[in-house]
Request: fold
Amino acid sequence: MKKIKLLVLFILLLGLTGCNQKYENGEVNVFNWSEYIPDSVIRQFEKEYDIKVNYSTYSSNEECLAKVMSSKTGTYDILVPSDYMVDIMLKKDLLEKIDTASLTNFSNLDPNYLNQSYDPNNDYSVPFIAGGVVIAVNKQKIEENITSYNDLLNPKYKDSIVLLDDERVVIGIALKANGYSLNDTNDYALAEAKEFLLELKPNIKLYDSDNPKGSLITEEASIGVIWNAEAALAIGENSNIEIVFPKEGIYKWIDNFVISKGAKNKENALKFINYILNPEVMKRVVTYFPYKNVNQETNKLLSDSYLNNEAMNIPDRIMNNGEFVIDIGENITKYDRLWSEIK
Amino acid sequence: MSKKLPLLIMILPIAFFMVFLVALPCIYVVIISFMEKGIYGGIEYIFTLENYKLILEPLYLKIFANSFFIALVTTIICLLISYPFACFISQKNKTVQTILITLVILPFLTNSLIRIHGLIILLRDGGIINNFLLNINLIDEPIKFMYNQTGTIIGMVYTLLPFMILPLYSNISKLDANLNDAAKDLGANKFKTFLHVTLPQTKYAILAGSIMVFVPTLSYFFVSDLLGGGKTMMIGNVIKNQFLVARNWPFGAALAISIVLFTLIVVIVYRKMGGKMEQLGGVSYEK
Reply:
């Protein structure tokens, strides 16, 4: 008897999965960062366009590259690499040309974020969202004004800084503190960066890339060198926190939609990209994940609480003064050695 | 043949599993550890020994040494906690034994990352333990349990403790109590009985438990990332970085192989000393 019941249940379950909605216009395979596009936006797209979205996520550019290189061509349609990764993917011939003229919403984008060095004519990439690494400071605990990366060396801040667990960020700011580029690979520059980081070491409470805002909110750490949206969310939870843009300039990035070489659903991919560029849709994205919006039509719809919040909406002058990480090729091993040395 | 066929069918799934999901990936790792790296990850099919030479550089040897140190301390603490505990359990009646062992195994059923996050709530400066100690005026400043090597070791001990308790328990609960009585009759005090009667009978369980704690400690990078604040570089962290950041897969593979080799050597030594492979698998339940 029991077995029969189980069998009936099983068949019912099969029936349920069979009821799955059919999509008239096929599918699109999106491979994106985790925590980047709210689920509701994707469901809405599926409903409006009758296209099934197969959505999977990654947590670093390198992971995205590794997955794309090791899977069959055409596995993914849309990827969302950062600036320097677009460059690498172009060098590896992994991208399909995008006809931006066919994207009716392309003109919504802020020209300030178009035609960047990694893809001068936006032949292959469409900017999605931007951001940068900022310094978040708990004003109740830190009296001094922090204006530069060098201020972090103050021995008073012993055991109180949270840094992103990312070698390009940490070594990058050490280089910037000494007046070099984020991407300098000269041995003398890296030697100075190493010295800076060894001096900074006693002040570092922890490295955390997953949830750096956590230790700021609980006041476990009083200074954070973290992503701007993380800082914005930390401020939302703890009003003692303020952000600072160091005078040496910030580490900035732009994440871009690209279409991978051999994509099977190119048409649908373009529809998806165009959909996200819609001002209303983009508004929902940045309200959910408060990074720097690069869609000027969306800016007209956003409230002052977003626009005037410098942690969310990093001012353009700061962005323009910031620096991209670029692909340093073989020299990445130098960075990795340095990273192992200072940790 | 007719007798062998059912047997073949029965072992087919496990044979498939061992060949395709264990043996082949391992062979693949060995192969790429002898190849040159591709600039953007992946490998170039050119034979080289560079990756193994790199391991011998002082920088990485130091990380090995540090990892071994943390693993050793973790193993010793686990042993010191588990041995008395296993003795304690095995003196209880059957029902209590089952309950206590279930309690040891139970946390295994939840995700270890979630348990580590639970530990963070307990251990951090403003956490439950420090708040309690501050409130009863036992301490004036929060004790630094986390974001240092102490944190890493606490996390490792917590995660790996059952691996030590289970083999010890299964061994100690089967010891013949008559031997202790005999030792007593022959005039040995409790300490001498323990040293000359109990300890020699449990040495393989101790070795088995130690191997099962020591080896995973080398590669549990998430524990040092979360509780050590990412400040202690362990071999696990270096391996992870080679694949995810430095795009040097062959070096990462070579590091992984060196840990496998180390483990093999330890297991061979263990067997030479007379240890049994079954005990390395954890518990043998037959009584």
